[in-house]
TrEMBL record:
It comes from Sunxiuqinia elliptica. Gene3D superfamilies: P-loop containing nucleotide triphosphate hydrolases. InterPro entries: P-loop_NTPase. This is HprK-related kinase B.
Amino acid sequence: MAKIVSIPYVKKQLEETHLVWLKNSNSYFLLEGPAWFVFDKITGNHAPQAIEKELVGRYEMTAGESRTFISEMKERISSFNEMVPMDHDLDFEQDLDNYRFMPFSEHTYLLKDKCVRFRYSGPALERYIHPLVKHLVIGDGDCKEVLDFELFAYNGEVVFRMNGKVMGIWGAGESHWVKGRIFLEFVNVLHDKTENDWLMTVHASAITNEKKTVLFSAAPGSGKTTMAALLQAKGYHLISDDFVPVDKTMFKAHPFPIAMSVKEGALDVLKSHYPALEETPIVNATPEKKVRYWPIKNDKMGMVFPLKEILFITYDERTDCEFIPLSSADAMKRLVDQVWVPPFADRVETFFEWIDGVSFYELNYSNTPKALKIVEKLFDDE
């Protein structure tokens, strides 16, 4: 077995599971039992014969099974250890800083007390961002300070430029990375911060009762936004939907007032609370997904409270209502694909430390009133 050279990683033990981050690929995975044992030995460059012998003794494998397992783990580690360029590492032509394009549209968005003048080179790129922040549009004459954002196509790629400086270049199919980068810069403008101030961003809804904030994480179509909208109708505050920034010092979730994406199936549940929602136009967010965009008001920027609980939520017609505490290991199996942590070892170590101070739960329901009572109790519990 060839020696694997230089595998920078950060690990955290969660009960019997190890959560591992590999720096070169900026990827997370969880390892248990023999998988962690072999990973630890291979990355420590132990002799393959010694690994095989100990694996046979510890896990009741045959010598053949042991050799096959070690070989498969080595291939997996090698693939995960491959370098993946970040948007700021990509090579690009230097004249892109000065490249001129004919804007398809231009909008000015009010972000707290600052304005972002945003130019889009075409309708497809405008659809990445504008429908989610359309409610923040104001006239240029109302701005004291204006920042220039531009999103344009160049040689089949998508370029984001801020105040004349290229911030990232992505392939045409990487819209989620484009949105994430632009939303992060929006958040920096809103809260007078830089990328270095954030621990992570989370694909979740954030609700606060002005004492603490709870995140609702779910797969698309699982009822996350519907539950958040119902709680807002009951007097709680939805401070962000789908993109939640968390700072690295106090671990507080910060508001980001993009519109809620309300799917067709949620209309019957929500229209009595939001009568105007039924008249809101249906938009093709993607070829497969039709939504109504419902704005979050831009007046909750001071609602910054500690993040103590994360609730993984699923609407399931087969289940009346069940509320289940989760171990950190089980929670991370769901969460690592929903978070973006800046790819630096010190930030990942802080993220791993943050896990210890958070409680995780699972809520599966079809009985909405019962589910709401459970969530309200979660907010009431200190």
